[in-house]
Amino acid sequence: MSKFLKFTLITLLSLAVVLAIAISVTIGWRPFLGPRTRPVTAQTFERTPARLARGSYLFNSVSACADCHTPHDWTNPEQPPAPGAFSSGEVMPLNGLPGTVVAPNLTSDRETGLGQWSDDEIARAIREGVDRNGRTLFPLMPYEQYRHMSDEDLASLVVFLRALPPTHNPLPETSIIFPVKYLIRSVPQPLMSPVGPPNTDTPETRGQYLVFLGVCHDCHTPAKPRQPAQ
To answer: Which CB contacts under 8 angstroms, 24+ apart, belong to 93-101?
Structure first.
């Protein structure tokens, strides 16, 4: 082997080692390997009136899921929801997003909604941030907060979603630009242990749990002020 070839191989190997170390200590390998996920199970949640009522409360009053997942008339100053399309999904009309983010159809429609999803696939998406194919959900969906939702509340939410009548609403897939589409793969974290009931011993602790599920802090916590330009 010539000295030049040997030098070239050593240089390339050194660069590869440096690159591997740099990736390991910065963004990690998840952008390349895909999100962490767990296999779905055959778990189903018993449909009961109590769970249906609790799920409706969480969906409509606490987390306000329909605000994102129901199409609106954005040409109207009051931005009313489209009639007959409750929770059937829409393309998010927010400026500054890194691509096209779609809030999917949550109704029981088998072609465009959750009709073919299993209970555990829905549960995994809500708390762990991956769809039924193991793809990362854009973190505008606050699954990092929902992972603290109790197992019973999760079951109630799934029961409520199962009860939504089907609405056929074809939508495009979420399409995120490079490199964000890969970087967000580091966000989902699988839940491997049960999540017990929240502490509701006092009105304060009960309220704290509900505020957390409602993701109220996203709007009501002051953002870090920008530093003035030098």
So the answer is: 97/140, 98/176, 98/177, 98/180, 98/181, 99/174, 99/175, 99/176, 99/177, 99/180, 99/181, 100/172, 100/174, 100/175, 100/176, 101/138, 101/140, 101/174, 101/176
Strand partners, 77: none
Contact, 71 vs 79, CB < 8 A? no
Name the burial class of residue 80, with classes exposed (0-12), middle (13-18) and buried (19+) by CB atoms within 10 angstroms of its CB.
exposed
Determine which helix (DSSP H) or strand (DSSP E) holds 214, and give its type and residue range: none
Q: What is the pTM of this model?
A: 0.87
> In the block, which residue shows the tokens 């762990």?
128
DSSP string covering 163-187, please?
A: HSPP-----PPPEE-TTHHHHGGGS
pLDDT in tens, 19-59: 556 666 667 778 888 999 999 999 999 999 999 999 999 99
